[in-house]
Amino acid sequence: MTTPGSKAAVDWLVSAAPDPGACRWEWERNPLGVTLLPAGRHWDVLILPGALGRPTLDVLTRLKGPPGPVLADSGDARLGFFVPAGTVSHWLGTGVRGAGRGSWVVVPYPGRDTGGVRWLVVPDGRGTLTDPALLELAMHEAAAREPGGEGWRP
Fold first, then answer.
1. What pLDDT sits at residue 92?
2. Consecutive sets of 10 residues in the chain, 154 residues long: mean pLDDT of each?
3. What span, in angstroms and rounded, lies between the C-alpha atoms of 44 and 130?
4. What's the per-residue H, E or C state across the chain?
5. Nearest-CA neighbor of 53 among 85, 16, 82?
6. Exposure pattern of 49-77 as b/e (b: 16+ CB <10 Å)?
7. What is the pTM of this model?
């Protein structure tokens, strides 16, 4: 497993940029430790509300180990799951937003604190992404465990 901030994770992320060299240069010098990267080239991002995203991540981790990269915003109000490019164009889900081709995503430098968006699951540098079918199953399982839901366990 690649450690946070590894060269492989950084290389993989900047490879999505139109100019990887310029992106890396700016990103490494940005005092906020973030950059904008285009979605839809190597990956899309499915954005879940935190109340569903956190339990979904827990389910995914139990299913097959760590999923692909996962971002969280400040306060965990939203979680972004990196999925294969093109997923957003045919994803149907109430309350789930998507960043696909034509969208830009704020991405923190792996291993650095930003005070805002942060990695819950750091990219492994090999391009591992979350399988959308597994993500959907995990979302259903997580939703069933909500208070008042059929499968809820405190």
1. 81
2. 66 94 88 91 95 94 86 92 95 87 93 84 93 93 71 41
3. 10
4. CCCCCCHHHHHHHHCCCCCHHHHHHHHHHCCCCEEEEECCCCEEEEEEEHHHHHHHHHHHHHHHCCCCCEEECHHHCEEEEEEECCCHHHCCCCCCEEECCCCEEEEECCCCCCCCCEEEECCCCCCCCCCHHHHHHHHHHHHHCCCCCCCCCC
5. 82
6. eeebbbbbbebbeeeeebbbbbbbeeeee
7. 0.89
